[in-house]
Amino acid sequence: MIEEVLETMNKYDMIKKGDKVIVGVSGGPDSMCLLHLLYSLKKDFNISIVVAHLNHCLRGKDADEDEIYVRRFCENLNIEFYNKKVDVNKISQEKGISCETAGREARYNFFEKLKQEIKAQKIALAHNANDRAETIIMRIMRGTGLEGLIGIKPVRDSIIRPLINIDRKHIESYCSKNNIKPRIDKTNFESIYARNKVRLELIPYIEENFNKDIIQTINRLSDIVEIDNSYLNEISQKMYKKYCYIKLNNIIISKEAFLENRAILSRIIRIALGKLKGNLYNVQKSHIDDVVELQKGDTGKKIILPNEVVIQNNYGNIYMCEKKIKIEKINNEFKLNIGINNVISMNINVKLNLINNGENLDLNKKYVKYFDYDKIKEDITIRYRQNGDLFVPFGMKGNKKLKDLFIDLKIPRYKRDKIPIICFDGNIGWVVGVRIGDLYKVCKDTKKILEIKIEREE
Amino acid sequence: MIEEVLETMNKYDMIKKGDKVIVGVSGGPDSMCLLHLLYSLKKDFNISIVVAHLNHCLRGKDADEDEIYVRRFCENLNIEFYNKKVDVNKISQEKGISCETAGREARYNFFEKLKQEIKAQKIALAHNANDRAETIIMRIMRGTGLEGLIGIKPVRDSIIRPLINIDRKHIESYCSKNNIKPRIDKTNFESIYARNKVRLELIPYIEENFNKDIIQTINRLSDIVEIDNSYLNEISQKMYKKYCYIKLNNIIISKEAFLENRAILSRIIRIALGKLKGNLYNVQKSHIDDVVELQKGDTGKKIILPNEVVIQNNYGNIYMCEKKIKIEKINNEFKLNIGINNVISMNINVKLNLINNGENLDLNKKYVKYFDYDKIKEDITIRYRQNGDLFVPFGMKGNKKLKDLFIDLKIPRYKRDKIPIICFDGNIGWVVGVRIGDLYKVCKDTKKILEIKIEREE
C-alpha cells in the first residue's frame, strides 16, 4: 500500500522537502493510518508533522474520548497535538446549513487558521477512494451536475489527500498490521443512514452483480469529469471578468453574457452568486434556470434566490444583490444590521459581515474596513458629524476633536458634512474614507471580525 | 401524458407541419405507444406517418411474430409498413462488435435508407426516460466519461424521441387505457441480464431507499452533462480543424495540439480516430492516454490501437493511419485488400472500404471513387498501362482503346506511364485521375459500395 500512496503523492506533487504538514486526525481508521504512514515516512521526506483534531461536540462523551485517544497517540510518538471544540449542531442551526456543511467548514477553518499560526505548508486529510466513490454515488442519486461528480480532489490549494486512491479495506488491513486500534469507524455528519446504506448495501450489491471494481471505476469517472469541468471553469472565470462588474454592492451580469453558450453562462451565474455571498449554499440548477428566464423577461422584474439574494432584470442586464433594507433615520442616525445591505440613501449602501478568517485582510481599501466585533456591545450606527465630536484616531491614545482632524487633513468645510461616520455604541469607529478609530481596531487577540463595506455612488 | 409529450415535442422543435415521419416500431409497449400517439396527433400536426420494423433474427419465431403483429396493426389503421430482416448475430461476429452495437447500426441504417427512399423528414424512436436512466446507470457502473453520461439525446439530426421524458409506467398505463396489447416487453440486445437487474432490482432499491424520483434525477444529470459536453465538443471540432490534416491516408495531429487543455486534447484525439475509422468502437480512455504518452516520448515510436490503427510519433507530431501493408508486385500488378491501407510504393497508398450507405457520395472527387462491389467476382488489382489495354469509359457502351482515350484527352506520353489503373477481375475499372469505367459504376440497384481512395504524394 505504501507504494501506491507514494505514487499518488508523487503524481500530484503533494509534499516538498522541509514542509511542515498538519495531519487532520479524527481517530478513525483512515486518519490514524494516514498519521502512522506520514510519521513513518517523515525522515525520508524530510518533513515535520503536527496533528490537528477537531471535537465537533456531536457525540457527547464519545467525542471527548476520541480527543483523548488521539492526544495520547501523539504524546507516545512525541507529535505536536492541537485541538479545538466547536458546537457544530449550534452552528448548523444558526446558519441554516446542514451539520455536514457546518462540520466541514469548522474543520477547514480550524486547519487553515492553525496553518497560519504555526506556519505550516500543507494540510493532509485522510479521504480514501471509498469516500470519494460513496460521495459521488450519493450525489448522483440525489441529483447533481459536473461539479458534484468530481467528489473529492486529490489536491486543493494546500490540502493534500495521500489516501485518495486507496480502498478502505487496504486501510483497515494496514491498521491491523501495524497494530493501530482506531477509535471509531467514522464521524458522519451527513445522514449517517444514507451513507451507511450506500457503503454496506448498495456498493456491495453493485460489486457482486455488476462490477467488482466499482470503487475505482467511479474514481476514474471522477478524474475525467474533473478535467472537463476545470477547463469549463477556467473559461467561465475569464468570461466572468469580461461580462461582470460591481456597482453599489450589486454584481451586474451584462446582457451580452446571456449570448454565451449555456455551459459557460450557467457557470458565470454561479460565480457571481458565489462572489456575492461567499458560498453557493442551497443554490440549485433550477435557480440558475430562473435567472436565465428572468433575463429573457421584462425589465424591472425581480426574483429572490435562497440566502436572501435579490436578482433583478435591468434592461436585460442582471443585477444581483443581497436583500436591501431601507434604514429609517432615528435621532439623526441610522442603525445598521449585520448580514444585509443597509440602504441609507439613494447613493449609500452599507454591508456588514462577520468573518471568521482573519487572513489576507486588505487593510488599505478606502471603503472596506475591519473591526473587532467582540468589543462592540450594542449598536452599530451611521450618521454625519455633530458638534463636539471626539475620536481616538488609529495609532493614537487620547481623544482628539474631529474638527481638528479635519483641519489637520485639510478637508474643506463643504465636504465635512457629507462624510459618513460609523459609530459603535455611540463612539466613533470610522470616519469613512478618512480614518478608523483606535478603540475597535483588529488586533492579535481578535476572534470575530466585523467587515464594513460602504458603497457610494458619486 | 399527451401534454407532457407535446411539451417535449415543442421544446425540442421535433416536428414541422407537413413532415413525413418514420416511426420505428418493434412491437413492444414503448413503440406501440409512440405509434398510437403520433397516429392520434397526425391531423393536429398535419403530418404523415409510416412504420419501419426491423427483424433482428435474434429471437427466432418470436421475432417473426413481432413482425406480423406490427404489420397487422398497421394494416388495420391503414399505415404504410416497411420491414427488413437482418441477421444481427452474424454481423456482430463478422465485425467483432457487440450484438447491441450491430443491432443499433442495422436499425439506424435501415431507417436512414428508408428515409431517403420515401423522402421522409423525421425518424421517431420510442426511447423513454427509464431507458435513458438505465443506460446511464449501466455506463456509470461499467466505467464511462461525459459522453456516456448523456445517454440518449431527445433529438439527433433527423431522429426524434418524443417519449424521452416519459416514465415507463406511464407508457404502460397508456397502452392499457388505449387497449393496445404490445407483443414483448423489450428487445434487449445487450446483456439482458444486466439491464434487467438494473431495471428490476437496482432502480427499485434506489427508489425505495434514496430517491423515489431517481429516473428523473438521472435524466436531469444527463441534460446538464449534455450542455457541457456539447460545448466542449464544439470547441474541440474547431481545434481539430486547426491542428489536424490528412496526408497519404494518415491523419496528422500537430504537436501544438498537445499544448491544449487536456479536456480538449482528448477530444481532438477521439475526433481523429473517429475520422480515420468512421467510428470509435472499442476506443477507451486508456488508449487516449497512450497517445498522449507516445507524443511525449521519442520520435519514431509506434503503438497499435484497437481496429488496427497505427499511431506513430514523428518529431512530436502524431501520425495515425490504418495498418499499412506493403503489397508485393506479382506479374506487374499489385493485389489490393479491403479494409487496410495498401502501400504500393513510397508515394502511393490505396485504401478500400465497403460502405453500406449510398447517400451523400461525392462523385466529383478526383482520387476517391465508388464502385458496385457485387459485380466484382475475384480480384481487385492496381497496375500501370499495358499494350492493348481496352476499356469501356463511364457513360459509353463499347470498348475503347486506352491509348485512344489518352490521345483524346491530350495526356502527354511521359505522363501515361505514371497513371495507376485499378482493375476488377482483370477489367479496367478506373484510370485513376482520368475516368472510371462503365461496367462497375454505382447504380440504383447497387447494394454494397466499394470505396477506393488513392493517396499520392507528388
Automatic annotation (TrEMBL), chains A, B:
<protein>
    <recommendedName>
        <fullName>tRNA(Ile)-lysidine synthase</fullName>
        <ecNumber>6.3.4.19</ecNumber>
    </recommendedName>
</protein>
<keyword id="KW-0547">Nucleotide-binding</keyword>
<dbReference type="InterPro" id="IPR014729">
    <property type="entry name" value="Rossmann-like_a/b/a_fold"/>
</dbReference>
<feature type="binding site">
    <location>
        <begin position="26"/>
        <end position="31"/>
    </location>
    <ligand>
        <name>ATP</name>
    </ligand>
</feature>
<comment type="function">
    <text>Ligates lysine onto the cytidine present at position 34 of the AUA codon-specific tRNA(Ile) that contains the anticodon CAU, in an ATP-dependent manner. Cytidine is converted to lysidine, thus changing the amino acid specificity of the tRNA from methionine to isoleucine.</text>
</comment>
<dbReference type="GO" id="GO:0006400">
    <property type="term" value="P:tRNA modification"/>
</dbReference>
<dbReference type="Pfam" id="PF11734">
    <property type="entry name" value="TilS_C"/>
</dbReference>
<keyword id="KW-0819">tRNA processing</keyword>
<keyword id="KW-0963">Cytoplasm</keyword>
<feature type="domain" description="Lysidine-tRNA(Ile) synthetase C-terminal">
    <location>
        <begin position="380"/>
        <end position="452"/>
    </location>
</feature>
<dbReference type="InterPro" id="IPR011063">
    <property type="entry name" value="TilS/TtcA_N"/>
</dbReference>
<comment type="similarity">
    <text>Belongs to the tRNA(Ile)-lysidine synthase family.</text>
</comment>
<dbReference type="Pfam" id="PF01171">
    <property type="entry name" value="ATP_bind_3"/>
</dbReference>
<dbReference type="InterPro" id="IPR012795">
    <property type="entry name" value="tRNA_Ile_lys_synt_N"/>
</dbReference>
<dbReference type="GO" id="GO:0005524">
    <property type="term" value="F:ATP binding"/>
</dbReference>
<dbReference type="InterPro" id="IPR012094">
    <property type="entry name" value="tRNA_Ile_lys_synt"/>
</dbReference>
<keyword id="KW-0067">ATP-binding</keyword>
<dbReference type="GO" id="GO:0005737">
    <property type="term" value="C:cytoplasm"/>
</dbReference>
<keyword id="KW-0436">Ligase</keyword>
<dbReference type="GO" id="GO:0032267">
    <property type="term" value="F:tRNA(Ile)-lysidine synthase activity"/>
</dbReference>
<dbReference type="InterPro" id="IPR012796">
    <property type="entry name" value="Lysidine-tRNA-synth_C"/>
</dbReference>
